[in-house]
Design brief:
single chain, alpha/beta, Rossmann fold, seven-stranded parallel sheet, six-stranded parallel sheet, about 40% helix
């Protein structure tokens, strides 16, 4: 009889959604899998089509992005009911909201519980010190519940250890074979350093810091900038050389990244962004902010560049064919060696079976 895995996720979109697609499709033959999910604007309308036919879905109607005590309490009882109905062998929680509610709804002494933060909420640099302290306190109290915290990068793992000794690290990975197939027909364009095409992707929200992306675009009015995605802070992208594409299918998004020369992540915080790993594999020069997740992957000047003290102008102005090619070659090699989905899935499979 197959072990039952219940994935609980409120943030069912963007990077977390991509993570779940690869993980679940890589384990659904071996395990009986149910996803308890919350809907977000960035959740694909046809999200069930991304998963195999064996996967079951249950919507948690009271899941919300922000803290809302009445809704959160209702969500807690919803999740408790789902856990009772599914009777899982393993409960796998994703992101902060599901991580808190799921650990209180489940009993880690009877059922194995795992929690992937995908970027701790108390690291959100856009929040006030009071809010960050509140988020840390909530995480610290919740960490007293019996569960394993799984950091998706070395930096996230180090933060997890401050909360609980019952923490491990499994680096995020991408499905290289799938990515190869999805991009095999795409042409590789030559780079024109006098007319660079620069992009990013994801929800236009606080985490991705659209103000900095807009500032960079303003400083390079002759270059084309593109934000692949949409979000509540799209009004922050005012520079006339920025195109906002809106939400795209995966195939469309990959094509747009492929047609760019540089992939920028202006994030204030991250777990380990899959969009970054994919851009590295697609031979795009990556320039990222100095935060956990980004700086776990990018070694400055070796496989991309890290923005420090707002030195993005110097980085972009000093790009040439030699340092561009050297960095993208090393970046692709690193993804193949360290961030392959096969290694990641094998580690989760081992955890489920322990």
């Amino acid at each position: 009889m197959k072990k039952k895995i219940l994935h609980i996720v409120e943030s069912f979109g963007s990077g977390v959604f991509s993570f779940l697609v690869d993980l679940i499709n890589g384990t659904s033959d071996e395990f009986d899998i149910t996803i308890a999910y919350g809907l977000r604007l960035e959740t694909p309308e046809n999200f069930k089509d991304y998963f195999g036919d064996k996967v079951k879905f249950i919507e948690v109607k009271n899941f919300t992005r922000n803290i809302k005590l009445d809704k959160d309490l209702k969500a807690l009882f919803e999740v408790k009911k789902i856990i009772k109905e599914v009777s899982p062998d393993v409960i796998h929680l994703h992101s902060s909201k599901a991580g808190v509610i799921g650990r209180f709804a489940g009993n880690g002494k009877k059922t194995k519980i795992m929690y992937n933060p995908h970027g701790f909420s108390f690291l959100m640099k856009n929040s006030s010190k009071f809010k960050r302290n509140l988020y840390w306190t909530i995480e610290r109290i919740t960490a007293l519940r019996k569960a394993t915290i799984v950091g998706c990068s070395e930096g996230e793992y180090k933060e997890a250890l401050k909360l609980s000794k019952n923490s491990i690290c499994i680096n995020n990975g991408i499905n290289i074979k799938k990515l190869e197939k999805e991009t095999e027909d795409l042409e590789k364009n030559a780079v024109d350093f006098s007319n660079l095409k620069i992009c990013t992707s994801g929800r236009i929200g606080d985490q991705k810091n659209p103000e900095l992306f807009n500032e960079i675009a303003n400083n390079f009015p002759n270059f084309k900038f593109m934000w692949i995605g949409d979000g509540e802070l799209r009004n922050k992208l005012t520079s006339p050389n920025i195109e906002i594409t809106g939400w795209k299918t995966r195939e469309e998004a990959l094509k747009l990244v492929n047609n760019s020369d540089i992939f920028i992540l202006t994030s204030l915080w991250e777990g380990m962004p899959l969009s970054l790993l994919e851009a590295m594999y697609l031979n795009k020069l990556c320039i990222v902010t100095d935060c956990i997740g980004n700086n776990d992957v990018i070694n400055n000047g070796e496989n991309g560049f890290i923005i420090k003290n707002n030195n993005y102008k110097e980085i972009i102005e000093n790009l040439n064919e030699e340092n561009y090619k050297r960095n993208i070659v090393k970046a692709r090699e690193d993804v193949i060696e360290k961030y392959n989905i096969t290694r990641e899935i094998n580690e989760y499979r081992r955890l489920y079976n322990e």
